[in-house]
Amino acid sequence: MSPDIPIAELASRAKDAARVLATVDTATKNHALVTAADLLEQSRSRLLAANQVDLEAAASVGMSATLMDRLRLSDSRLEGMASGLRKVAGLADPVGEILSGWVVPSGLRISQVRVPLGVVAIVYESRPNVTSDAAGLCLKSANAAFLRGSSSAINSNLAIAEVIREAYQQAGLPADALILLANTSHEAAAEFMQLNGTIDCLIPRGGPGLIASILENATVPYVIDGDGNCHIYVDASADLQMARQILVNAKTQRPSVCNAAESLVVHSAVASEFLPLAAADLEGVELVGDPEAVAILGTERISPATPADFATEFLDLKLSVKVVDSLEDAICHVNETGSGHSEAIITADLVAADKFCNEVDAAAVLVNASTRFVDGEEFGFGAEIGISTQKLHARGPMGLQQLTTTKYVVRGEGQVRG
Amino acid sequence: MSPDIPIAELASRAKDAARVLATVDTATKNHALVTAADLLEQSRSRLLAANQVDLEAAASVGMSATLMDRLRLSDSRLEGMASGLRKVAGLADPVGEILSGWVVPSGLRISQVRVPLGVVAIVYESRPNVTSDAAGLCLKSANAAFLRGSSSAINSNLAIAEVIREAYQQAGLPADALILLANTSHEAAAEFMQLNGTIDCLIPRGGPGLIASILENATVPYVIDGDGNCHIYVDASADLQMARQILVNAKTQRPSVCNAAESLVVHSAVASEFLPLAAADLEGVELVGDPEAVAILGTERISPATPADFATEFLDLKLSVKVVDSLEDAICHVNETGSGHSEAIITADLVAADKFCNEVDAAAVLVNASTRFVDGEEFGFGAEIGISTQKLHARGPMGLQQLTTTKYVVRGEGQVRG
């Protein structure tokens, strides 16, 4: 993909490829995915060399060690990309599933059939493995993948995309089933996000800056993978031992991800017993809390929280703590400060569990389980393109099904409307 | 609703009402709908008087007879509004439906539950009956309705909204489950469309000008009820008698609606036999066609079509005609010129029917039936808020289900992620 090809031409090629993909059978798609996995493994030196160019450029501009690590390809990461493609080949094909079917009084037979979206655009940040992950999910769901990665990974991304395009051609599919934007300018990104009539769905994979840019610039339909300001609410009736284990897991098992807990809400009936235990469990985690929490734990262990703390996704070893006097107050606090991602209650009380599940407005509500379970793999979707925090189209973990739309097929014998 | 109340305050009230509605039981919602129907009937003179103010203002600015007719309330229209609300009361409640449920290897029990969207905004044009129709569908799906009608109908709309709000209060529900924007300025409309964080879904009901305004101004999530440039394709194997009946029905039964046919595509093998019959059936319908169609029918009956004609939703007694040499050409023409609404093939050939259904990219594809059947009532949804031509969230006729989202409920016994 030369950076000189106009975006409009790339868009048209993606659209043509999408038309072809829409009617390709499952075996051909799976064969293409396995071929791509094989070819990625066989192209090890070519891919690592391209990645080296990106790494050197990154080093020369002083990129941080964390970002350099994200950018780096290795044998094991290439194997991970290949095995990811093979895994997607093994998943059920979502296309053609009949969601429902019925006969209406006019005699028409109606069925609602799952079909691909068409052209799926994904804008992502520095990890080059997203190139193959996104390509695989799009191909299996019969969508053309139209990708825009970051400029820092452009050589790696282009090399990966070229290998996958070769594999698609070898498998008899159009290479344009995967198009990577080689022009990484901001102007090109803005033009990309406004390809109405071409891009059927845009999915960002990245941080708050990228999301803000989508919200500001995109005119095409999109699904936002938003913040996760997730709460663990420890109810008056909670098994405190269970609550401690879940809290530690949700906060510390992987603090940098969206389904990690950012806030602890405790019922006042158990706060003085629970908080000191939790604070000890969470050694190394910075705590900020409301006056009640500070009174219980003391200012050596916890600092006073600002209102902004309760609305912040720390993505770090930091936790806000709030003491409430009732389940109602807990629900109100979660709805006001949460981001609608994943919210958990720890309780032994059935009525409290049901009330929390019914009244908390989030993509996922959990009873007696860690928020860390809210992802496509743990939900059994086999793969995940992101976790939607919006309410339209897809809400929660997005797998292959969320990369599809539906079509009504109506069969008659000459019916006309009276 | 005074026009002086700031929009932000109205938004906050709608959001509070939505929280209450989310857990209201079905019987209470149905009782509120029936109460609203009764109260509309009992408020006949008050509603007609308010409507008279709008009609006089419209007459004084020279509104066309067609638009005046749309604006006019009458006894029978009020009865229609009341019976519409009673009908919605009789429909199944979509909220709480469990779409799927499963157990994952970690032992977590996951279910996907249908829940309300929250605040549904509807922007609509002159027909005042949309006020009660939209209110009813939103209430049954447990959403707060936040409405913005046209300035020409403001007195009628405010009177209808006040009556329904009174009924909600009598039934024990918050009056703010229905909020009508009394400020009909363009500035207020623009502010309304950008109430991010309040409006969960915006649905326009109106013409191309309104749709364009949404696309340009709205920052909240929306579902577009778009154009219907619908085709009838008469295949080489079609029963021509059936094709004639379907074509006449699709074109003339109600030419002003989005599921009416705007274009006829005929296979060249039957064009010379079919077109003269169709042209005679369609007496009074203006025809424009490609050179082949003009050669068959003659310039007295059909004019040469411009490329724009094939892309136009006439919404009138006008039809474009195209002759194709193959099913493939027909599919290509439909995909290139259609708006993705409803597309029909008339054929006796099973392979052709399946190919058309698979390859035409539209919300609904029909075999041997009139495109006029593509609406919520005919599909058995009981009521319709619109017909979506977009691919995300909802595609095709939208009933109560399309006014909902889902939530994952995850139940465990203390599971933590390894």
Mean pLDDT of chain A: 95
| Overall shape of chain A | globular
- Which regions of chain A contain 5 or more consecutive residues with pLDDT less than 50? none
Strand content of chain A: 15-25%
Instruction: Give me the Rg of chain A, rounded.
Output: 24 Å
Major sheet summary line of chain A: 7 strands, parallel
Sequence of strands across the biggest β-sheet of chain A: 10-9-11-8-7-12-13
Q: Helical residue percent of chain A? A: 40-55%
> What count of helical segments of chain A does DSSP give?
15
- Structural category of chain A is alpha/beta
Measured distance between first and last alpha carbons of chain A: 55 Å
Could you please describe the fold and organization of this structure?
The structure is a homodimer of 418-residue chains. With 418 residues, chain A is α/β, with parallel strands linked by helices. In chain A, 42% of the residues lie in helices and 21% in strands. Chain A has helices at residues 7-21, 26-42, 44-60, 65-71, 75-90, 129-140, 154-170, 186-192, 208-217, 240-252, 268-281, 291-297, 307-310, 327-337, 350-359; strands spanning 98-103, 109-116, 119-124, 144-148, 178-180, 201-205, 230-234, 261-267, 286-289, 302-304, 318-324, 342-346, 364-369, 386-388, 396-398, 404-415. The first copy, chain A, has a 7-stranded parallel beta sheet, with helices on both faces. Chain A has a 4-stranded parallel beta sheet with strand order 5-4-3-6, with helices on both faces. A 3-stranded antiparallel beta sheet of chain A has the order 1-2-16, with no helix packed on it. In chain A, helix 2 packs antiparallel against helix 5 (75-90) and helix 2 packs across helix 7 (154-170). The longest helix of chain A has 17 residues, at 26-42. At the A-B interface, helix 10, helix 15, strand 13 and strand 16 of A face helix 10, helix 15, strand 13 and strand 16 of B. Strand 13 (364-369) of chain A pairs parallel with strand 16 (404-415) of chain B, so a sheet runs across the interface.
